[in-house]
Write a structure and sequence with these properties.
This protein is α/β, with parallel strands linked by helices and 107 residues long. The protein has one domain: Hypothetical Protein Aq_1857, Chain: A. The chain contains two helices and nine strands; from the N terminus they run βαββββαββββ. Strands 3-2-5-4 form a four-stranded mixed beta sheet. Strands 1-6-7 form a three-stranded mixed beta sheet. A two-stranded antiparallel ribbon has the order 8-9. β4 and β5 form a beta hairpin. The protein is globular and about 35 Å long. It starts with a strand and ends with a strand.
Length: 107
């Protein structure tokens, strides 16, 4: 499997990298946190880490550390607007349960 971006998410990342003036892609990962056990983390990548798995979706490179990959494999990252709110949404097939606020999950 792989990790992918929707076209809308890829465009948002591309626009942000252009405004930022540097960067080669997006790093996705997980960390222990929240009420359900794990939380997503996102950061822009300026330099590749030789231990990351690298995927490409809609022209955007996605970097994932080996520890996070089992939790993210098959995930699609979308960028959505709902009313006045907008942000990334993780469509992760591995999630068994998540907290009410959507900030953390477990597998």
């Amino acid at each position: 499997m792989a990790v992918t971006l929707t076209e809308k998410a890829a465009q948002h990342v591309s626009n942000f990298l252009q405004k930022r003036g540097k960067g080669i892609g997006l790093r996705l990962g997980v960390r222990t946190s929240g009420c359900s056990g794990m939380a997503y983390k996102l950061e822009f990548v300026d330099q590749a880490d030789g231990e990351d798995e690298v995927y490409e979706s809609h022209g955007i490179k996605i970097f994932i550390d080996a520890r996070s990959l089992p939790y993210l494999d098959g995930t699609e990252l979308d960028y959505v607007r709902e009313g006045l709110n907008e942000g990334f949404r993780f469509n992760n097939p591995n999630v068994k349960d998540q907290c009410g606020c959507g900030e953390s999950f477990n597998v």
